[in-house]
Specification:
By secondary structure, the protein is of the alpha+beta class. The protein has a single domain, classed as Endonuclease/exonuclease/phosphatase (Deoxyribonuclease I, Chain A). The chain is about 25% helix and about 30% strand. It contains eight helices and 18 strands. It has a six-stranded mixed β-sheet with strand order 3-4-2-1-18-15. Helix 3 crosses helix 5. The relative contact order is 0.15.
Length: about 350
């Protein structure tokens, strides 16, 4: 009887250990982010662009020192995003409001990021302000397979002249073996008022949707991440009616889009940029259905957030709590950007 009890005890303990070993799953986690770098222009006048109207070119004394500080500030933020959770800066980060590839290279080569060995994808766009979108990626973790720029053609309702704006960037590549497609956008601004400028962003959303549709036509289960400064909130027509992004995972169909920032805006009142005491959540990252499946044998969406750490906010004055921007009427503020970055985590089971 004693031997039987001993055997039973050992069997129960072994079963308990076995069950707990199965429950203690391990995951690999990466940060994917987006950041509006707020007028990251170099100090050289480009005669083919309207860069002389940029805040950087308007600085008359100490411009080179200001530029170096601005670059370092951008690198500091990128280096910090996601590190508390992953121990690493973003494996992929979309960026906008950059003048050219040179300024992106300066950010990637900053002392805070150099060890990460970021690669860059960038195309010159026809934007009238001379700003572009781009993508930075850690070469050891993500390998681009293809890249392309997609032109947005919009026209002024009155003059019928073309309005030159940013292209949308598509990069497809392998994240540690998983094929992922990333679209980076900076949709037309609200200049002239939200209602008057709305058709431009609807057109941008339609272009974005065509890119997504083209990928899904080849593979309905394509893992697609679309991100950017959309100059629209998650509840605006461009996102709600054109992209048809959903706030609940259960409502996302096979070729649908999930937008985790809808609840942040509607329920929590959060934003990434502020104007006249009102918050807007213009910066968003959305994913297609295959990224929200519950099988974690490949990379899936885990959660999203706004990177609004204390050092990125104004501490006092009229704009207390707003993003601590780089440029104001008095020139360079020693700040960062007028937008907070946004991010998502992707996780994958490793055992």
């Amino acid at each position: 009887m004693k031997n039987f009890k001993l055997w039973l005890f050992v069997a129960l303990i072994s079963a308990f250990i076995s069950v707990n070993a199965q429950e203690e799953k391990k995951y690999k986690i990466h940060t994917v982010a987006f950041y509006n770098l707020e007028n990251l222009f170099d100090t050289v006048n480009d005669t083919e662009k309207n860069d002389e109207a940029s805040p950087m070119m308007e600085i008359k004394a100490g411009r080179e020192a200001v530029y170096k500080k601005k670059v370092h500030n951008m690198a500091r933020v990128i280096a910090d995003i996601g590190t508390e959770t992953t121990g690493n800066s973003p494996v992929i980060i979309g960026i906008c409001e950059v003048e050219n590839v040179d300024v992106v290279e300066d950010v990637a080569n900053d002392s805070l990021l150099l060890v990460k060995d970021y690669g860059i994808v960038h195309f010159e766009s026809p934007d009238r302000r001379g700003i572009d979108v781009g993508l930075m990626y850690q070469k050891r973790l993500f390998q681009p397979i293809s890249k392309s720029a997609h032109t947005l053609r919009i026209y002024d309702n009155n003059t019928k002249k073309r309005i030159y704006t940013r292209d949308q960037l598509l990069v497809s590549g392998k994240l540690e073996g998983d094929l992922i497609h990333i679209i980076v956008s900076h949709w037309p601004s609200r200049s002239g008022g939200e209602a008057k400028s709305r058709p431009k962003r609807v057109a941008a959303a339609k272009l974005n949707k065509r890119i997504i549709d083209s990928l899904q036509a080849l593979n309905p289960y394509a893992k697609i991440i679309t991100m950017g400064d959309l100059n629209d909130d998650p509840t605006n027509a461009s996102i709600k009616d054109v992209l048809k992004a959903k706030r609940k995972k259960k409502d996302v169909k096979i070729k649908g889009i999930y937008n985790p920032f809808i609840n942040m805006f509607k329920k929590q009142g959060l934003g990434t940029t502020a104007y006249r005491d009102a918050w807007s959540l213009f910066d968003q990252i959305m994913v297609t259905k295959p990224l929200i499946e519950t099988d974690f044998s490949s990379f899936r969406y885990y959660k999203a957030g706004i990177y609004n750490k204390n050092y990125l906010t104004n501490k006092k004055g009229r704009y207390k709590g707003y993003p601590f921007r780089s440029f104001a009427e008095g020139g360079f503020t020693d700040g960062f950007s007028d937008h907070f970055p946004v991010y998502i985590y992707l996780i994958k089971e490793t055992n």
